[in-house]
Amino acid sequence: MTERMDARFQKEVTQALESAGLITDCDLEVSVEEGFVQIEGTVPTRERGEVLMKTLRTVKGIQGVELEVHVLHGEDALSLEESFGNEDQSASEARNLIENNAELREIGDTPQ
What secondary structure letter does DSSP report for 50? Predict the structure, then answer.
């Protein structure tokens, strides 16, 4: 994974969290390293924590998630460490090649 891809994943994760309304009512810190997303912070209820986990699973391309989130209303804490095996090595290599080559990106952006 490149820093550029990590930055892209950071943006995509943040946008997904915003779309799910998780940025406004949760206190979350998001970081991405080598395609793995780390999230720490608090959520108001356990239900919002479950929405957070479901939302993270929708972001394509990330390698896994490490989540350490505390629930404000209750004694619970949500912890999750999950690796995503939804992309094989050749697909990952192809995606990396396309992202790092402007000419291939243009081909990939062309409607077929």
Answer: H
Gap between the Cα atoms of 5 and 63, Å rounded: 12
Residues in the chain, overall count: 112
Which tens digit of pLDDT belongs to each residue from 54-111?
898 889 888 888 888 888 876 566 665 656 544 444 455 555 555 555 554 454 444 4
As beta bridge partners, residue 67 has 39, 80
Main-chain dihedrals φ then ψ at residue 35, nearest 5 degrees? 85, -5
Task: Decide yes or no: CATH 3.30.1340.30 for domain 3-109.
Answer: yes
Beta-sheet strands, E only, within the chain: 27-33, 36-43, 64-71, 77-83
> What does the alpha-carbon distance between residue 14 and residue 19 come to, in Å, rounded to a whole number?
9
End-to-end alpha carbon distance in the chain: 28
Which amino acid type is present at position 107?
Answer: I
pTM of the model: 0.66
